[in-house]
Amino acid sequence: MSGHQLFQIVFCSLIIFTSLPLRADSEVVGKSSPIPLRLEPSTIPYAEMNTDMPPWPEEDILSGVSEHRYKTLYSGDIDVSIYEAKPMKLRLRDFPVDEFVMVISGKLILTADGGTPQHYDVGETVLVPKGFTGTWEMQGNFREMVVIINKALRE
Length: 155
Fold this sequence. Notes:
CATH class: Mainly Beta
Number of domains: 1
Distance between the termini: 18 Å
Strand content: 35-45%
Helix content: 10-25%
Order of helices and strands: HEEEEEEEEH
Radius of gyration: 16 Å
CATH superfamily: Jelly Rolls
């Protein structure tokens, strides 16, 4: 496993698994069954997001600055987080997980090796498959909601 692949695994794990999980389930006092959880990723201030993410490796940054934050909204069979980053373009190799993304603000441009750029604006969604290799460009005040299967279910 290359250093880049190891970093990507650690990076994605930090995004999803290091904050305290929030659950909407039957363990809530006075509730006998799970209840829906409203997700409002655009309402959480940047200052309230977690800062314990390491920067992307310099060799993976094609442009911009590696400054980002995250907050886990839910952790159960799936993990749901928001991620916000300063404008940046990254080179990714063999992305470590299947990841569902909804653009909350800014713009996302994904370009698979040998492919054409695919643009995603606010409200649009994309599934980035495990193994993706190419560029990941975040423009403007970029924020996304990320959904992946919980790590425990993948093991």
